[in-house]
Design brief:
mainly alpha, 5 helices, about 85% helix, about 0% strand
Length: about 100
């Protein structure tokens, strides 16, 4: 299981350096790996991070519905993980999504 967590962490980290179209694939692959791991604080925190970053990338690509879905999943995982850093990111993105919807 640790190997899957490590692989997913690498995919999430490396997605930051990829063009948005390729980052989507990398982040979705990381989610797939994480789904095979038993729920835990660490796994849920990584799921949150993957989905929140996926939401950011999807929004960059103009895919609003996909971005909102990924955000909602990421926000939910951030709350269940109880990892403060991920929860802060979820709150920040929530504000960004709200502001862009109003603007």
């Amino acid at each position: 299981m640790q190997r899957l967590l490590d692989q997913a962490a690498i995919l999430i980290r490396d997605a930051r350096e990829l063009p948005p179209e390729r980052a989507v694939g990398s982040l979705k692959e990381s989610v797939g790996l994480l789904e095979a791991v038993r729920p835990s604080k660490e796994r849920d925190g990584m799921m949150a991070l993957a989905y929140l970053r996926l939401a950011q990338v999807q929004r960059q690509l103009g895919k609003r519905q996909e971005a909102e879905r990924a955000f909602m999943l990421g926000y939910s995982y951030a709350r269940s993980s109880r990892e403060e850093r991920v929860r802060r990111l979820a709150e920040k993105l929530g504000q960004e999504f709200t502001n862009s919807a109003q603007g």
